[in-house]
Each structure stands twice: as C-alpha cells, then as structure tokens.
Amino acid sequence: MPVLDRFRLDGKRLFITGGSRGLGREMALALAEAGADVILVGRDAASLETTASDVRARGRNATTIVADVGIPAEAERACRQALDGAGPIDILINNVGGRRIDIPTADLPLETWQAMLDLNLTSTFLCTKLIGGAMVARGGPGRVINVASVSGMIANRGIGGRSYETSKAAVIHFTRATAADWAPCGVTVNAIAPGGFMTEPNQRWAKLSPEMIATFKSQIPAGDFGKPEDLGPLAVYLASDASRYMTGATLVIDGGYTLW
After folding, report:
1. Fewest Cβ atoms nearer than 10 Å: which of 31, 115, 117, 203?
2. Percent helix, percent strand, percent coil in the chain, to nearest 5
3. At 1, is the pLDDT very low, low, confident or very high (cuts 50, 70, 90)?
4. DSSP character for 229?
5. What is the pLDDT averaged over residues 247-258?
6. Percent above pLDDT 70 for the chain
7. 14: domain range?
8. How far is C-alpha 4 from the geometric centre of its chain's CA atoms?
9. Total structural domains within the chain
10. Quick check: is 64 in a domain?
C-alpha cells in the first residue's frame, strides 16, 4: 500500500467530544478531510452545527449531539445515543477538558475539585468504557485518542487549580493501562499532550493574567504558541493505519516547552 494511503480514513466513523471549537474542531475537520464521517459532541448547538457544516463541505457526513460530558450522566447519554443511532464507531477522541479555575489547593472546595476531575478524567473514562468498549466487544480494530496535556507531566508556575495537572496525569496513565489491556484486540489507545495553544480558554487566561502568558511564551524554544490546526495531522496519524503498531504512547506537541 502506498504510504500516504495508510493515512486515509475512508469508511471510518469518528466520535469526538468538544468537537465544535478549538483543538477539537481542527481535529474533527482534519479527520473528515482524511475520509472519516464525524459525530460531534459539545455543549453549544450553534457551534456544533457550524463545524458540522464544515465537515459536510468536505464531503463527509456529520452528526451532532448536544451534551456536557463533564457531567457523567450526560457523557453516558451521548455515548449511548451515538452507539444506538450511528452504528459502529471506529475512532474515539476524548478531547473535552480544561482548567477553568485558579484556586490554590488550600482553598479549593471538594465539589470544585470533583467537578474538574469529572470534566478532565471521568469523561475520558466513560467515553472510553462505552465507545472504546464497543470496539473491543466486536474484536477491533479501533483507535482511542485521549487529549492529555503537558500539564500532566509538569507543574505549571503561577497558577492554582491543581486538579488540572492531577487529572491530566491520570489521563496519561489511564491511556497506558488501557492500551495494555486492549492491544490484543487490535484497539490502540494513545494520548496527545499539547503545550501552549491559544484556544478560546487560553485567550481568556491571557486577558486575566497577561504577565503569566508572556512568561509562558518566552519559555517556549520555538518562540510562539501552537495553532489549533497543528494538532490535525497528528490526530490523523493516530486515527489511521499508519499508527497500527503504536499504542500506550503520549505524544508531546509543545514547541519544545518541556525540554527545559
């Protein structure tokens, strides 16, 4: 098979959380360009439909599910709705997540801690259990891609809300453990660990704490933040036959930030 053909996703179906904006949108569009049909899950119906229209403009089918997968019951509902309505799903991207808070650990309420773990970790677990579990049940193949963060490998300076670092570190190890379990079935499980990308949440952080963002940028060897579209080719690789022999890996894409 010609090497570029191994990156094609024709006939495949993707389920992606947080698929209407930012990194999720760019990954969804990239996989659509490679041939995949797309099920987009997110909280905002209007932005979901905008991205769905862009998927359809690329000649692929797009379905939207309005759900807040940071709420466990909503995550389960979205997964079951997709499995019942769309048929077999070949690729899962667990993209939903975020820091959202800047509260020192000593002041962090338990309910806020739990909500952030549900957003970043429990959503990944539930979607992997249900969507990925269906891949395993039919004997594979399948691809699970978890969006972690370099924050799961380091402690960020000058910001509270350590539930983010904790949950993203857990996503990385959940990726490794699940990959070991599911490799015999032909279902690969890998993670992407982005560094600084100026998505909408980080643009808000920049307005609230411009000095912190400026310091962050100055510490990136590549000299700038990443662009959401930089994740698309990496997601296509992990979703395709080109990555057949890779599982349990966490691929860092951070402009070299974690090298120092």
Report:
1. 203
2. 55, 15, 30
3. confident
4. G
5. 97
6. 98
7. 3-250
8. 24
9. 1
10. yes
Which DSSP string do the residues of 117-170 spell out, in sequence order? HIIIIIHHHHHIIIIIHHHHHTT--EEEEEE--GGGTS--TT---THHHHHHHH
Whole-angstrom CA distances from 56 to 50, 62, 86, 151, 234 are 10, 6, 16, 34, 22
Quick check: pTM over 0.85? yes
pLDDT confidence band for 202 (50 / 70 / 90): low
Residue 221 has a pLDDT of 94
Catalytic residues: 164
Which residue, chain included where needed, has tokens 């959380």? 17
Q: What is the pLDDT of residue 206?
A: 66
pLDDT level of residue 201 (50, 70, 90 thresholds): low
> Does any domain span residue 50?
yes
Residue 51: exposed, middle, or buried by beta-carbon count in 10 A (0-12, 13-18, 19+)?
buried
Q: Is residue 157 part of a domain?
A: yes
Does 154 map to a domain? Answer: yes
- CA–CA gap between residue 230 and residue 171 (Å, rounded): 21
Distance CA 32, CA 45 (A): 20
Residues with Cβ within 8 Å of residue 109, at least 6 apart in sequence? 103
